[in-house]
Design brief:
This protein is an alpha+beta fold. It has helices at about 30-35, 40-125, 135-150, 195-205, 215-220, 250-290, 305-310, 360-380, 395-405, 405-420, 425-430, 440-455, 465-470, 475-480, 490-505, 510-515, 520-545, 550-560, 570-575, 585-595, 605-610, 615-635, 660-680, 685-715; strands spanning about 10-15, 20-25, 155-165, 165-175, 185-190, 225-230, 235-240, 295-300, 325, 330-335, 345-350, 565-570, 600.
Length: about 725
């Protein structure tokens, strides 16, 4: 191809009808445009330009996509901001409602405080309309919640309690009518439901679970609030439940914090009151059985009179025993107090006109006093719901048996403590000033007995002049008075002193001497009487515990004691007796013989029960009852009486008649023989007596043989 010539710009000018062509030069741009170029070069330029445009278009499209993503993100953020603003508005509205509810509750607090003060006064016994008992206070607490928030209806409240060591069972102690469970209902953790779920969580954790913080209707209608009731030591023993609808949380907290210690206090006072009632009834029964007339009472919340309290300040009213009225030795007064000094009450025992405060009554009353003092100390450490001491007459009897064994030492210790208020200076100074003519034989014997008991030799007190010299050192005498030894386990020197005292007082009437003697003489007689009484009581108790071993009783004991540990377990006694007696008889015998309450029978307890006839008495009573029942059945059916050994228990006999049954048969035979002798007219008495003695010997021999055979069969596993 040839090069194309660039056209030139020409201008045609008309000139008189003729056309003239004039050439005009091109500009630089026109020159470049019309400049001939190579076609391939031009194509490459176009391709490059297209590619460049394409890249630019792609970049622009990418920018548009990014802008779209950013627009979407901005849109999401905007939507989130809108939601957040709505939530903020809702929260603000909720906050305003809660603030309004809190301000409303502030107006209710004076009413709450007034009602809780009334509850506190009732719990402290200051309300004449409410007796402070746990049942009354539980009901009053639920009513207090209803009165504190009367706008919340229906009132749904309850008080739940449980044993501190067994939180698997919860009892509804009191509940309002609209509560899910009635009063007395037992909730069990294994049968928990949605309604009781919050209760079990609080029982397990001891932490409150509340649902109406601001007193709003929206929360109250669906909430169930549970607040634990705790003791002064922080131990949870009950729970206060409200709702639905639930009262405000702050009211629940105030009520629970106030009610916990108050209910604990009332519960403990109730247990002490029950213990005092059981002990006073025991004293009445024991005194009546001893044919002694006493008047026993317990005055709750009372304290001792001023006269009794000032006896320690007046040396002339000194008494050896703490609970003796200084103005009336026949009046026993026991003041019970809590550890911090708050009075519980006074137990008073007044002897009748012809009843003296003898050693028997002293053992009974001072043992009871120690029982109650120990019970108060024990109850004060209890958590409400735990089993208290002295709650039954059986528990009182067991405690009495334990206390009476040491009552002599308790009395002598009490005398030693009360000697701190004994004014030896006044007492012995006045005695020392007596003229010889005033000192008669009985007064001299009394002084000699007192001084020899505290360690002075007889030769140093054989005359009044020598006694006067001894009385010049009253402090030494008082110190030795506090060291007098009593009981059986004393050395020979102390026993010699007691023998010397007995010889000195052989012909002395202390009651007459006390009636006509001066005040120092009366005080010395009180001390000597109290010390001798403690000594005689401890000697009697030591003698009582000594029981002569019975070979037959020992043999039967060894037969029953299969494991040879020296103690009869309940299972061993039931296993031994089951062939002849129902299991209830074995358990009853165990309760009778077990004096220390360890649910076992020691060899000493078995021997004491055997010697006292308790074993044979129970079994004879059961045998006679069974015989009468058998006879009545025979009469009603008009047939022959059933044979001995027939019935439900007959199939269990595998080892024959037990030795215990044989011994019981001997006692039963004796009672039958006495009955037959009483019915006769006196004929053949000597013959019957000889015949009875022969039978008794045979029965005793059979019992001994049976005991040996029973031991052998038991060791072989036959019983």
């Amino acid at each position: 191809m040839g090069l194309r010539r660039s056209p030139s710009k020409a201008t045609i000018v008309a000139n008189g009808g003729a056309r003239t062509r004039m050439v005009v030069p091109l500009t630089d741009e026109q020159e470049r445009r019309y400049k001939p170029v190579d076609r391939e070069e031009r194509q490459l330029e176009l391709v490059a330009s297209l590619r460049h445009n394409q890249a630019e278009m792609r970049a622009r499209l990418a920018d548009v996509a990014q802008i779209g993503v950013e627009l979407k993100e901005t849109e999401s953020k905007l939507e989130g901001s809108i939601v957040t603003s709505k939530e903020a508005a809702e929260q603000l509205q909720k906050f305003n409602e809660e603030m309004a509810g809190d301000f409303e509750l502030m107006t209710h607090k004076p009413r709450w405080i007034k009602l809780l003060d009334e509850f506190q006064n009732a719990a402290l016994g200051r309300s004449p309309d409410q007796e402070p008992t746990t049942s009354n206070l539980s009901k009053l607490l639920c009513e207090t919640l209803a009165l504190a928030e009367p706008e919340i209806t229906p009132s749904t409240a309850a008080l739940l309690s449980w044993h501190p060591l067994d939180k698997e069972n919860v009892r509804v102690y009191h509940a309002s009518e609209s509560f899910d469970f009635p009063t007395g209902h037992m909730l069990r953790s294994k049968a928990a439901c949605d309604a009781s779920a919050p209760i079990w969580r609080v029982v397990a954790s001891g932490e409150e679970e509340l649902g109406n913080a601001h007193g709003l209707a929206r929360d109250s209608s669906v909430a169930r609030s549970v607040a634990p009731l705790k003791t002064m030591h922080g131990v949870t023993f009950a729970a206060l439940v409200s709702g639905p609808p639930a009262v405000p949380d702050e009211l629940m907290q105030m009520a629970a914090r106030s009610a916990g210690p108050l209910l604990e206090r009332v519960w403990k006072k109730e247990q002490v009151k029950f213990a005092c009632y059981n002990v006073t009834e025991f004293i009445k029964a024991a005194a009546t059985s001893q044919r002694q007339l006493v008047y026993v009472s317990f005055e709750e919340g009372a304290t001792l009179s001023d006269t009794h309290l000032t006896a320690k300040e007046d040396p002339w009213k000194w008494q050896p025993f703490s609970h003796t009225d200084p103005d009336d030795a026949k009046n026993f007064q026991l003041a019970l107090r809590w550890r911090l000094g708050e009075p519980i009450g006074v137990v008073t025992v007044q002897c009748g006109t012809f009843t003296e405060m003898n050693e028997t009554l002293l053992v009974l009353l001072h043992s009871a006093a120690r029982m109650l003092a120990d019970a108060v100390e024990f109850i004060e450490e209890l958590t409400p719901g735990m089993p208290p001491p002295l709650s039954t007459q059986a528990a009182v009897m067991n405690a009495y048996e334990l206390q009476r064994k040491q009552v002599g030492y308790v009395l002598i210790e009490m005398i030693s403590e009360n000697l701190a208020y004994f004014d030896e200076g006044k007492v012995f100074s006045e005695l020392k000033s007596f003229e010889p003519k005033v000192i008669d034989d009985e007064t001299l014997a009394l002084l000699q007995a007192c001084l020899m008991l505290v360690g002075y030799e007889k030769k140093t007190v054989e005359a009044w002049e020598k006694i006067q010299k001894v009385l010049k050192n009253p402090r030494k005498i008082k110190e030795q008075m506090a060291l007098v030894e009593i009981g059986e386990e004393i050395n020979d020197k102390a026993k010699g002193r007691w023998d010397a005292v007995s010889k000195c007082l052989r012909n002395v009437d202390l009651r007459e001497l006390e009636r006509r003697g001066s005040v120092p003489i009366k005080i010395l007689i009180r001390w000597l009487d109290g010390t001798r009484c403690a000594h005689h009581i401890q000697l009697a108790l030591a003698t009582e515990d000594k029981v002569e071993d019975n070979p037959m009783a020992n043999q039967i004991f060894d037969t029953i004691d299969l494991d040879g540990d020296g103690m009869i377990q309940a299972s061993e006694l039931v296993r031994y007796m089951l062939s002849e007696y129902p299991s209830r008889v074995a358990h009853r015998l165990l309760r009778i013989l077990d004096t220390d309450g360890d649910m076992k029978v020691s060899r000493a307890e078995w021997q004491r029960g055997w010697a006292a006839g308790l074993i044979s008495e129970l079994l004879v009573s059961h045998t006679l009852t069974r015989r009468q029942s058998r006879e009545s059945v025979a009469e009603s059916s008009e047939g022959a009486p059933p044979e001995i050994g027939s019935g439900r228990m007959a199939g269990r006999r595998t080892g024959g008649v037990t030795a215990l049954t044989v011994a019981t048969a001997a006692r039963l035979h004796e009672s039958d023989a006495v009955t037959d002798t009483g019915k006769g007219k006196g004929k053949g008495k000597s013959k019957g007596k000889k015949k009875t003695e022969g039978k008794d010997e045979a029965i005793n021999k059979r019992a001994t043989d049976q005991g040996s055979s029973s031991k052998g069969s038991s060791s072989r596993g036959g019983r």
